[in-house]
Amino acid sequence: MVSLIYSKNHPIYGNGFNADLKVEIKGACEVKAKAIFGKKNLDIGIFDASAKISAGYFINGFGGGAYYNMRRKSLAAPAEYSPSGLTYEPYQEGD
């Protein structure tokens, strides 16, 4: 599954793109990724991904990401979570 949405005047992220990707290899793994790039008062960006491994390895999954002018949001609704289970909001140093 692939989703790409253009957002105009989004209340949090301004103008930009929101992309989601989900790939499943039955019996082996499932990979989910999310990217948000936008501009409201400043350029922002986030890439977040997770992988669940179901093939009986010692590690059963991992996740992580990178962000620019964002910070982890302390409280969030479940619908706001990214693939790694974290959620982010725009942040500028000094705010």
List the keywords:
95 residues; two-stranded antiparallel sheet; 7 strands; 0% helix
Summed up:
By secondary structure, this protein is an all-beta fold. Helix content is 0%, strand content 60%.
3D architecture notes:
The chain is mainly β and 95 residues long. It has no helices and seven strands. The chain has strands at 2-10, 14-25, 29-39, 43-53, 61-68, 70-72, 88-90. The radius of gyration is 15 Å and the shape is elongated. 13% of the residues are buried.
End-to-end Cα distance, whole Å, is 37 Å
The percentage helix is under 10%
Poorly predicted residue ranges: none
**Helical segment count:** 0
Q: Please state how the strands of the largest beta sheet are arranged side by side.
A: 1-2-3-4-5
Radius of gyration: 15 Å
Mean pLDDT across all amino acids: 84
Reported for the largest beta sheet, the result is:
5 strands, antiparallel
Beta-strand proportion: over 45%
Helices and strands, in N-to-C order? EEEEEEE
**Overall geometric form:** elongated
The number of E-state strands comes to 7
Find the structural class using helix and strand composition.
mainly beta
Topology, element by element:
Layout: E1 2-10, E2 14-25, E3 29-39, E4 43-53, E5 61-68, E6 70-72, E7 88-90
Antiparallel strand pairs: 1-2, 2-3, 3-4, 4-5, 6-7
